[in-house]
Amino acid sequence: MSERKIPKEVIEEVERLREEIEYHNYRYYVLNDPVITDEEYDKLMRRLIELERMYPELVTPDSPTQRVGGKVLEGFKTVKHSVPMLSLDNTYNEEEILEFDRRVKKTLQEAEVEYVAELKIDGVSIALRYENGKFVLGATRGDGIEGEDVSENVKTVRSIPLRLRKPVTVEVRGEIYMPVDEFKRLNDEREEEGLPPFANPRNAAAGTLRQLNTALVAARRLDSFIYYVVHPENYGLKTQWEALQFLKELGFKVNPHSKLCKNIQEVIDYWREWEERKKELDYWVDGVVVKVNRFDFQRILGETSKAPRWAIAFKFPAEQARTRVLDVTIQV
Ligand SMILES: NC(=O)c1cc2c(=O)c3cc(F)ccc3oc2nc1N
After folding, report:
1. pTM for the structure as a whole
2. Helices marked H in the chain — which ranges?
3. Is the CB of 230 under 6 A from ligand 1?
4. Bridge partner residues of 163 (DSSP)
5. Residues whose CB falls within 8 Å of the CB of residue 170, separated by 6 or more in sequence, listed in order
6. Interval 279-312: pLDDT, tens
7. Active-site annotation holds for 120
């Protein structure tokens, strides 16, 4: 068939619809502050789906219609990370986090070091790549050197933008997680279907991201918090705190509870506070991630083959372990 000429006004309408729909996705899923009703949103989406059906050659990988899934993949390609995705060493009590602070100050020869304290979301690590502001790749951590290309599934996570609010080429990293009420709904559904329940929201999120049927992934409400910019120096960022603001400006969902701490004592206070307050959250957290704020200090501290020396996980006491101890105490 000869190249069909697509009327200019159709191309303009499709482009306008895409921008508008992605903007409303951002308002609803990232800011949790929609400015149109669900009906108005559905009307926009139905019109875009209709136009893409009439002119399939107009469909692009970053079109919001790709969020509803519908592909069944053969498998996941392997992708090499631009820089290794490392893991965090763990600390479990104040003595160990003070030891971390001492080590950091010794290496830096600094009297006081600022930290960023972030809630440690109990989900699945993800790397997201954008070219000129357009989503091009989503990859799991894998072995840290290479992961799985789960781009089609990542597109169904509504809080992950398909277009950034600035046309930058950047790789960011964060966590994809399953909200607690979605986890409960899903396990109820599995029980009705005679399927084994997921042990926890992290396994449910990991299991969902590994699904080859993207429509199934879209039917489950996964969410995200982004916390890391790869090569932040390329964007003039000097600290982790600036990186978190930059991520917000780009349109990512960034956890609202992170805190810039003047010293390790403020980190400990934050850890104590959220050990109590974590039950207020609609997602699981298993501790606090403590990061040296200044990137020049992070570069001096460097990293081992497994973990950075400038960040550490400050874990909350595990629930069951604490209960066991309490039981013994009561019996004595
Ligand atoms: N689960 C999390 O909420 C979370 C996890 C990590 C990491 O795994 C992580 C791993 C690194 F090698 C370096 C920084 C990191 O920062 C992180 N920050 C977070 N907020």
Report:
1. 0.92
2. 8-25, 38-54, 94-108, 151-154, 180-192, 201-209, 214-219, 240-250, 264-277, 295-301, 319-331
3. no
4. 134
5. 129, 130, 164, 229, 230, 234, 235, 250
6. 999 999 999 999 999 999 999 999 999 999 999 9
7. yes
